[in-house]
Structure formats: C-alpha cells, structure tokens
Design goal:
The structure is a homodimer.
Chain A: H1 3-9, E1 17-19, E2 25-27, H2 29-34, E3 42-48, H3 58-71, E4 76-80, H4 85-92, E5 97-98, E6 101-104, H5 106-110, H6 116-136, E7 143-148, E8 152-154, E9 164-166, E10 177-179, E11 181-183, H7 188-195, H8 199-208, E12 210-214, E13 219-221, H9 222-225, H10 228-235, E14 242-246, E15 251-254, H11 269-278, E16 281-285, H12 290-305, E17 311-316, H13 318-324, H14 337-356, E18 361-366, H15 373-385, E19 390-393, H16 395-398, H17 404-416, H18 431-443, E20 447-450, H19 452-463, E21 471-474, E22 494-497, E23 499-503, E24 508-512, E25 532-533, E26 539-540
Parallel strand pairs in A: 3-16, 3-17, 4-15, 4-16, 8-11, 17-18, 18-19, 20-22, 21-24
Antiparallel strand pairs in A: 1-2, 2-14, 5-6, 6-14, 7-12, 9-10, 12-13, 14-15, 23-24, 25-26
Helix pairs in contact in A: 3-17, 6-7, 6-10, 8-10, 13-14, 14-15
InterPro entries (chains A, B): Formate_THF_ligase, Formate_THF_ligase_CS, P-loop_NTPase
Keywords (chains A, B): ATP-binding, Ligase, Nucleotide-binding, One-carbon metabolism
Family (chains A, B): Belongs to the formate--tetrahydrofolate ligase family.
Chain lengths: ~550, ~550
C-alpha cells in the first residue's frame, strides 16, 4: 500500500509528509508541533526476559500485537528502533520482525532507509574534525589532546577501528593522539537525537555535549566550539520520524536506534510522542530484557515523554525459560518441564519489577514448534497461580490472527486497570543512591562496588552539578547480574561499577560495569558474503 | 515547481521516478535500460581555463546556458556533479551555481541530498572492514598488512585522518597497520559509480578493484574477497541519477562528483547518457580547467559514453586572464589591457587543444563589474583575429537573459559545424606513450620524467596487462604544468611522475605528479561556525 494511504489512516496529509519514494516518508516537525496539545492515546511497552541464544521474538510480537490491535478495530501505531548496517552486514542480515509479522519495505529499512544513521555518522565525525581542527589551529580552548573523550563513529562492524592513532605523518596532519571509532548507534549523537523534542531542544542538547577536558581538567563542550548550529543542520532531517507500515498495513514509526547498554535503547522520543497523539494505541518496545530496556525506558525516556505505559507486555518463550532454567541450547528440543519451572523465577522477577513501577503487566508466550503440551500447561498454571494475565502468540506463523488473544487481553488490562506509575528514584538522589536503587530493586542484587576512579568521578560530577541526571547502566544483557553466565534469578551478587561516562547532551550518566564493546567486529563469514543484487534489481542474501 | 512537473517536461512518468520529497527524485534504472536504443541529442561540454583565485564561474555559466537554451525553445537537460560535505562545512559553504543561475533545492543538494555520498562512504568503509576482517580471521588470501592500498573514507575535511594507525589495543582489535582516510569524492568507489553503465557493469568494476598485495606481491581484488554483491547492494540507489531543477525550472541531473585530479572529475556516465536520450541538448561540465577536466572527459569518459561533445564552451573571465597575465589578486580592480593580452596565450592554448580533439569551441566571457571597456574590446578583438566564436554572459546577474547570446551561438555552432572527434591516444599505446601525448600535446610541455618507482610500476603493469587503460593525471589545477606558480602558457617544462595508482575498478591508471592531497583540512574558521537552523526551519550560513 502506498505510504500516503497509510498516512491517511492516521490523518496525516500530503503536506505533513516528506516522501522518500512511495513506501517511506518523514513527518514534518511543524505538524508535530501542531499536535502538541492533542490528547495522548494509550501506551503499550513491549519488553522481554533477558535474551538467550534461543530467541524471544520481541520485535515480532510487537509487530503482531500492533496488527492484531488494528485487526480488532483499534487505531494503532507501532514505534520501533531503526536497525544499524553493522550487524546487517555482519552477523545476522537484516531484520524488522519476521514471518507474517514484519515491517516493510524491509530492504530499505535494513540498508540506507531515509539516511538517519548516515546523518548521525556525519554529525558525529564533523564534530570530531572540528575538535582536532581546533587543537591544530592554535587551540584557544586549550583542549588536552590526551583527554578528548569524543570518539569518531561509523555505522559498520569494524574491530580494526576500535583503537586507532590519528594525526600521524607530520605537522600538517594535525596533532597525533589516541582515538577510536564507535558504531554510530553507540554514539551520544544517537542518544541526543532520540531524546530531543524539537530543533531547539536538539541544539540545547548538542551544546551540552562534553567532548574533552582542557589542560586544567575542566570540561570542554560543543557550546565552547560553537558548532551546535552546524550539527543541528546536519541532523534536521534525521530528527523527523519515519513512517512505514507492517505487511498488514498498520502504520509504523521506525526512528532512532540507540544501543541499550551504553545508551537508553528505545526509538525516538518524537516518534513515540507523535504516535501517542495520532492513534488510540501506541505499541513500542525497549531493547534487550526488561532490566536494561524497560528500566531505561521508564527512568530515562518517560520523564521526557511525560507519559508512562498503560500496560507492559513481557515476551517469553518456553525455550528461553528452559535456558534460564539451566538447559543448554543443543538440548532445547527435548521436553523439560522442570527447567520451565526453574526458569520461571527469572520471569517472575521481571514481573515483580513492573509491579514495583506500578504498571499492569501481561505475559506474551511466543510459540515455538518445539514447545510441548506439558511445558505449556505448566507455564500457564504458574502464571495463573501468580494472578498474571498471559496470552499465547503465533504472529510469526499467523500474522495478526496469531495475536488477537494478546491484543484483546491487553485492551482489557488497560480498560480495567488504573496504572499508577511510580518512578524508581527522584532526580535529587545521588548517583550512588540511584545505582543502588537499580541494582537492588530491579536486578535483585545485594549491592554495588565502585572502583576508585568511579568514586572520584561521582565526587567530581556532584561538584559540577551533574548528579541530578538519571543513570544509564551499561551491563551484559544476558543476566540480571553483570555476569553473562548467571542465568535465571541470581542472588547475592554485587555489581561493579568501573567508570562513569557523562553524556550531558543525552542527559544521563553512563555507568560502565565490566567491558562494554562499542564497536562490534565481523564474524569469519560475514552475512555480506551472501548478499547480491541482480540486473533485475532482485536482492538476495539480505535476510 | 514540484519535481514531477519537471519530469513531465522530459517525459518521465511517476513510475520512472523515486521521489525524495517534492523537489528531488531518482530515476529508476529500468527506465534507463528502456531508453538504451533511443537517439542521442547534442552534447555541450562546459570547461574553463585553469582556475585562479579570481573565480571563473564555470558552474554558473553551465546553469545559465542550460536556462538560456530552454528559454530559446530548446529541450535541454543540465548534468552536473554533486557537491561534497567536506568543503561545504569547511571553506566555502555550499554551491550549485550562483545568483540567478542556480540549481535548487540548494540546501538539500549541499547537505545529504539523496544520500549518494553516504552510500559511497559506507561501501568504501565496508570494504575496508572486510579486508581487515579477512586478515584477522586467518588471512586465507595472505594479504600483506603493510601493502593494503584500499583506504578508508569520510565525506568530510579532516586532516587528522590523513594518516592513522588502526588495529591497536591488542589482539582482539585486529592486525595493527598504517592506514589513512580519503575524502569520499577522492575514493575509487566514487569513480567506479560514475563510470558504471548498469548494475552488472558496477559489479564487474567492483570485482576488479585492487585492494592490496598478498605476501607474494600479487594483487588482491574485491573478487577475491567475494563482496562485490554486498557492495553493489549498498550502491544500488546511489547508481540512479538524481533529478532536480534550476531556479528557471530547467531539468538538472546532479549525480556523482569525483575529484578532477586523482579521478576523472565529471558527473556520472548514467546521468549524461540518460540526459542525451531525454533532451535535444545536454549541457555538462568537467572539473577544473580544460587540461585536467576536459582531457579526462574526452579520454576517459567519452569512450564509455560513446558520444563526443558537439561543442565545447570555454569559460573565461577578464579577471582570470589578467591573473594568467601576471596581475596579483589585489590589483585586479585596476584596468590592465596588457595583462589581458599576456593572459590570452593561456586561453589560446586551451582553444588549440579543443581543435586538436576535432571539437568546435566557443568562448564564454563571464562578466564581472570590474571589467573595463578597453579590456573587453581587446579580448573581443583577439578572439576575432583567431576566428573563435565568443559570447559575453551575465547569467549570475540576469539568469537565462544573460546567456541568450551564448545559447544562440552554441546552437549555431552545433548546426553549422561537423565535429570529427579524434581521441588523443589509442588504448594500445604504452603508459609512457600516453603520458607523453598528454603532456606534450595538451599541457604543452617538453617531456616527462619518471621516478624509478614509476618505471618499475610501468613494467609491472604491462606484465599484468593493465597498460591498455587510459591515464588519469593527478596534477595541480592552477597551471598547465605541474607547478602551481606557473600561470599563463609555460614552455619547456617537464612533468615528473612520482608514482602510479592502479584504479582497475574505475578503469584507469592514476599518475601522481607532485603531492596530491586526497583529504583536505578545515580552515581556522570553518564555514560551519556560521551555520544554524532555527526553530522555524530557517537555515542560515549555508551559502
């Protein structure tokens, strides 16, 4: 269906759109500005248990749920993150849902789409060039070349760029120094774009980005460099949400895609807030499991969105629960009711967490062919005992038809429950208090240990007035703890905070636990080896 | 005017286009394929004398000529290169003509446009990542890390990236080695895109790119790495010509923009060939002066285009002729008839060169307010004595009205002259013979000296069968010689060839004379400092 017809469904006219071909469009910011005082619809947050190699299908369920809501007559918009080219070329090929629960045009979305990632890469690297140029051209701000924290970025998997030396080859090539490249989705530029409410807000956030320290150890910002206008200009189109559709023609905003460890892991603020104005139901998802994605959605994004979810959907599979119950990937085909039971404690913890936030939750059991009747029966019984609503979904196989039970139960949950959102911590908490709150209440840990450097940074940040910001914990996505091997519901663990990274533009402080890779590598046989385009235009190997 | 109305003028339907908003579109490759057997229209090549800081206005005259041709009732398409973000952010702000002879939407064209440059950057760096990954993952092809010739690229001015070390920080970050970044327009990827006639041709060219030598000193190609399919996939949209318009609504293809020193400096083959099928008159331009741009257009692009120009327009200004006659930039405001006379020998050489190719030429004298009556009279007289047609243009000030005399004379020249294109050299010439031909006949030099390395390379390339390719000389644009200080018409100079760079994908051998900078730097006060975007969407400082 042409994108204008999709736009019609949510009352967007031709003038509200910037077309990118017949199947993609951006929504003009002045339209968004006009919608500002409209009433919000209902917000449904899709999250999951901690991911396992067995796969949970969170995006697929999000797509299927949106289609099913549309199918039962609810005006619905889906808001998703946009993919990065790095993983597409590397590990997995492209993705935006799967089976009969997909977002289209999938090829475009997984390649250059509307150029947002490229605009971010360009703005990121333009800023890096301005910094190096400033040092080269007299260094009026006295930037310390050994303390430039702003890294370069590419939207690719390229381990050789993780750590580099730049400015080599003699005086005319600038100041030699150590540097590195992040994948664009890990860059603060992406987080800034995703949390900006307008061009003015974007510029205000850009100004606050700390790029380096000067020789006195004081922070140097984009404002000091006077380039926020040029950077905002490079990002002006990227700030507009992208409109596409599911294969069942539900409108979808695919916009922004920050990492869920080093950043907050949700699609853009503008996409979600605009969807809320245009539809009765907005379905959105958060990255990784609920400990990382949902926590950050609720503690970092919601304060800006000024709207908490009306319901949370936690996606599980029996396979994944069995892995959390101690079964190895190769043994998942075998029935193992006991493992489902053992794994259930993991799901239970995430359910408790949503209760803690005061949010109604429902479990979506995403069907796999290997699920057995006994396993299914046990899981249903366990959920019933806890009084948790649940629905089985088969949207990959059956599209919206496979999600109707879930859609109806979600609507029922929203209509019968009064959410009373309770934030996890107030802004006035110290950094240490905030992290303790997250670790103890959300992860279920015993406490937090801080490195000497982390302690020094907390003191310094407090003096600089940065401690009012929320915390973004960079942690393994595989476990509630910071040890990827500890599946299920680990107890009595402590989380070690190695270092903080202030992201003043994004508006949060990243707490690094363990080693976080911000530039992935390619596997021995990259997905790219199978990709091709024929003279007919036919594409192979992208999915 | 909406782009569909512009497309209507040249009989392109909605189905032939991929819209990028209301004012930009790409032309589908299957439409281009369908046009293959249509008759070609007339081709007008706009070139100039060697550029000076006084400015010649070649692009402005190209735009004005196309508008004037349209104005006098000729179906006309203009085909231009697309700009790079690096210089836009750096030295000069954006550009696509000027005054009343402009291409619009100028803001878009000078920012991300339709994403072609970003696709090229991505393909370039994906290839680099595949190479480094191959070496890291066992290095089956035995690529020598010290002999990787494929560099990374960004579409920015960034001197700190000219020479870098990658793969630092330990074993898991790949193989440490020296590397560097070129500006994207200097990358072979750009030249490949600009000379490809189809997706198949693009893939064939990609396959042939030499990226490195193996430990035995043998060339390693993209074909060996098996990634031409993935790279072509990344470039499939970028291969489609972009349609925009002049402010007087003449259709313009703005597509591809390779450097005119390290590459061949013209817009894409597909843009020019498609324009020839769709209009009676195609106006196109070549980079820098006629010694670099026109020579490469004629000896590198024409063999693939299979169509030589029907007329060549050489743009001059009295100011620039005075500089070639020895006047300093600061003294240009003063009348100096003698300097015009001295500078005329420079123009004369370029006119002789066009005669050498068998092409009818006309001089466009682009007016400046500082031109005096005496200077004008002398220049007219000199041209008359030589029997060279000429026309004064004031398209910057007056749009198409300022180019009518030129347009009428160009049409008259085409209708009354039979061009008989004579290529400068046959493919069978040796590399040395080809370079001698260019230097002696086009530059007017006495001979060529080759470094020891260049001689070794010529032998090696001959053995590898690469010597049938045309030569792309990388030389200063400011002089007919390889010394930028030698203005006018220098004599008895030799050109020193330092080194060759085989560009097997592009299909030419680059001969490096002197130092060629393939990654520019930013000035002390980059243009970016003045750029801004307001909440209203208004842009300032881009031009």
């Amino acid at each position: 269906m042409e994108i204008q017809s999709i736009a019609d469904k949510i009352h967007l006219t031709k003038d509200d759109l910037e077309l990118y071909g017949n199947y993609k469009a951006k929504i003009h910011l002045d339209k968004i500005e006009h919608l500002k005082n409209e009433k919000n619809g209902h917000l449904i947050l899709v999250t999951s248990i901690n991911p396992t190699p067995a796969g949970e299908g969170k995006s697929t369920v999000s797509v299927g749920l949106a289609d099913a809501l549309t199918h039962i007559g609810k005006s619905t918009i889906l808001a998703l993150r946009e993919p990065s080219l790095g993983p597409t070329m590397g590990m997995k090929g492209g993705a935006a849902g799967g089976g009969y629960a997909q977002v289209v045009p999938m090829e475009d979305i997984n390649l250059h789409f509307t150029g947002d990632l490229h605009a971010l890469t360009t703005a990121n690297n333009a800023l890096a060039a301005f910094i190096d140029n400033h040092m080269y051209q007299g260094n009026e701000l006295q930037i310390d070349p050994d303390n430039v924290s702003w890294k370069r970025a590419l939207d690719l998997n390229d381990r050789a760029l993780r750590q580099v030396k730049v400015g080599l080859g003699g005086k005319t090539n600038g100041i030699p120094r150590e540097d590195g490249f992040d994948i664009t989705v890990a860059s603060e530029m992406m987080a800034v774009l995703c949390l900006s409410a307008s061009i003015e807000d974007l510029k205000a956030r850009l100004r606050q980005i700390v790029v380096a320290e000067n020789t006195k150890g004081e922070p140097v910002t984009v404002e000091d460099l006077k380039v926020e206008g040029a950077l905002a200009l490079l990002l002006k189109d990227a700030l507009q949400p992208n409109l596409v559709q599911t294969i069942e023609h539900t409108p979808v905003f695919v916009h922004g895609g920050p990492f869920a460890n080093i950043a907050h892991g949700c699609n853009s603020l503008l996409a979600t807030s605009t969807a809320l104005k245009l539809a009765d139901y907005t379905v959105t998802e958060a990255g990784f499991g609920a400990d990382l994605g949902a926590e950050k959605f609720l503690d970092i994004k919601v304060p800006h969105l000024k709207k908490a979810p009306d319901a949370v959907v936690i996606v599980v599979t029996i396979r994944a629960l069995k892995m959390h119950g101690g079964v190895a990937l190769k043994d998942l085909q075998k029935e193992n009711v006991e493992a489902v039971k053992r794994g259930f404690v993991h799901l239970e913890k995430h359910l408790q967490n949503m209760q803690r936030y005061g949010l109604p939750a429902i479990v979506a059991i995403n069907e796999f062919s290997s699920d057995t009747k006994n396993e299914e029966a046990l899981l249903s019984q366990l959920l019933k005992e806890k009084g948790v609503p649940a629905a089985r979904t088969s949207v990959w196989q059956n599209g919206s038809q496979g999600g109707i039970e879930l859609a109806e139960k979600v609507v029922d949950l929203i209509e019968t429950t009064e959410p009373s959102f309770m934030p996890l911590y107030p802004a006035s908490f110290t950094i240490e208090e905030k992290i303790n709150k997250i670790v103890k209440e959300i992860y279920g840990g015993a406490g937090v240990s801080f490195s000497k450097k982390a302690r020094q940074q907390m003191n310094q940040f407090a003096k600089r007035g940065w401690d009012h910001l929320p915390i973004c914990i960079a942690k393994t996505q595989y476990s509630l703890s910071d040890d990827p091997e500890k599946l299920g519901c680990p107890k009595d663990f402590t989380i070690s905070v190695r270092e903080f990274v202030p992201k003043l533009g994004a508006g949060f402080i990243v707490a690094l636990t363990g080693k976080v890779l911000t530039m992935p590598g390619l596997p021995k046989q990259p997905a790219a080896l199978k990709m091709d385009i024929l003279e007919t235009g036919e594409i192979t190997g992208l999915f």
